[in-house]
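Retro notes, item 3 of 5
We never archived the inputs for the 5-phosphoarabinonic acid complex last cycle. Fixing that now. Sequence and ligand:
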Amino acid sequence: MITLNYKNADANIIGKANGLDIESAFLSYSSQISDIISNIYSRKDEAGQWLKWMNLGYDSELYSSIKSFANSVKGKFENILVLGIGGSALGGIAVTEALLKPYWNLLSSEKRNGYPRIFFLDNIDPDTINGMLDMLDLRKTLVNVITKSGSTAETMSQFMILKDRLEKAVGSDYKSHIVATTDKKSGILRQISDSENYTTFVVPDDVGGRFSVFSAVGLLPFALLSIDIDSIAQGIRDMDKSLQSKDIHSNIAAQNALIHYLMDKEYGKNLSVMMPYSSRLKFVSDWYVQLWAESLGKNKDRNGNDVNVGPTPIKALGVTDQHSQIQLYNEGPNDKVITFIRVKNFDTTLEIPHSFSDTGIGYLGGKTMNSLLNAEADSTRVALSDYSRPTITITLDKVDAYNVAQLLYMLEVQTAIAGELYNINAFNQPGVEQAKNYTYALMGRAGYEESAKSLQAKMAAV
Ligand code: PA5
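Structure as it came back at the time:
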């Protein structure tokens, strides 16, 4: 199981001015946390609660259908191209970067055991899209278009381009190069998929984009790439079992949610830095940034009061950002909680040769990159403590499907608990919808004419 160490956020280590008395906090919030956990788990099957992502690790039918599709197309495609944005892309990017061999797309087919390369097209920069189209052989590409709403302009515009290019590249067979992952009944992509007869997978009801990584949104590309989705399910289930504990002392998601909440409320530390000491986990930070930001950044609480809450998530990478951000984190405003993700066992032990032994770098000879990385993580954590900066450390035994699934699922539950502590709805995103609607209006979508007029007036005024 992954572990959480919060000692460096405690007043005993970093002083009362910046650290919490964590044991007292756990005691005074124990009954509220217990209620929150009972409440979340009791609502998870209810329609409209947006908690059905908590059931995904148990959905054996989903796993079978995905594995069976993956088997049916095995060996047929050299490339998978995922079209999607936000929650429809970030989980896939985070997990594939973590679990595939580094530099996967650059490896020979033999080194990839015949499994395809993977590309995500989440942005809509025309140069990048054009570059992707120039580079990919569409005759050997499977396009997985993912959008829960079925209408997101970024994803659907990409899809329109790709469908057109596929048709030109492979003729009438283009449909066998498309898999759509979308709502089971509603949305434009659902209509198109049904009328065009595409293979489809479902983004289940009550599973929002940023909580969808363990639905077909993530699992389908993972299975196509030979990532062990059964171990993913096992990791989710084992973590879920432990997070059902109503006792905060044994529930790491509740602990981390409460510490972040109190650091924000009581100490004004409302910046949350996610800093894995593993390049393979680099994109977990991007995923976490969206999860934390879209879920917790809200202007109204559940009673309709104006609150404008939400800690700001920041991504960092150890050790790279020691040479970029740590100066600020040690000496700048003491307004952050920094979370390290540590890995106990890397797949590789990489020794540094005994070269230049009579120079100032001779001490490195015979050590390993592994010990250097861990020494740097320890040094950074202790230095931050010396400067009275709170840090949390999450430790994974290794970067594998089981542990990565535990990590992501734990962070999802942590987010749901934090939402309850802030007393906000962690599962909507009205602030995103507003700009999406403005885009529809600007681009001339039917039904948005009034919005377009008022928008034009606002734009002319500035
Ligand atoms: O988390 C969310 O709900 C959002 O980030 C969505 O995933 C994102 O806006 C894409 O939406 P859709 O899947 O409907 O295209």
